[in-house]
Inverse folding.
């Protein structure tokens, strides 16, 4: 097993509008990308990000670029005074130590 950060060339998060967070992961090779397809599920994301599975809009695997896009509906919009991260740029932490 290896950690996600060891086999992904990009792990990033950002806003997808004020109401959604998107997580992008791009892998260095097909082997680890294919393994990740069996590991990255709504249940896992729900547990890591402490949100209901109902808030996970989708997990999209893009084989042609060995990429994964995860979209989560935010509980607090990015323009709300109660938000903890206006740009959603630092939300990848729960995933980096994921075992692949």
């Amino acid at each position: 097993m290896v950690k996600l950060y060891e086999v992904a060339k990009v792990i990033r998060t950002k806003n997808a509008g004020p109401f959604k967070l998107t997580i992008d992961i791009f892998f260095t090779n097909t082997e680890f990308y294919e393994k990740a397809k069996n590991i990255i599920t709504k249940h896992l994301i729900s547990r890591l990000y402490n949100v209901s599975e109902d808030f996970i809009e989708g997990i999209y695997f893009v084989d042609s670029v060995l990429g994964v896009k995860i979209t989560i509906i935010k509980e607090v919009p990015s323009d709300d005074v109660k938000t903890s991260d206006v740009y959603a740029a630092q939300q990848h932490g729960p995933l980096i130590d994921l075992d692949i």
Notes: The radius of gyration is 13 Å. Strands lie at 8-15, 20-27, 56-62, 67-73.
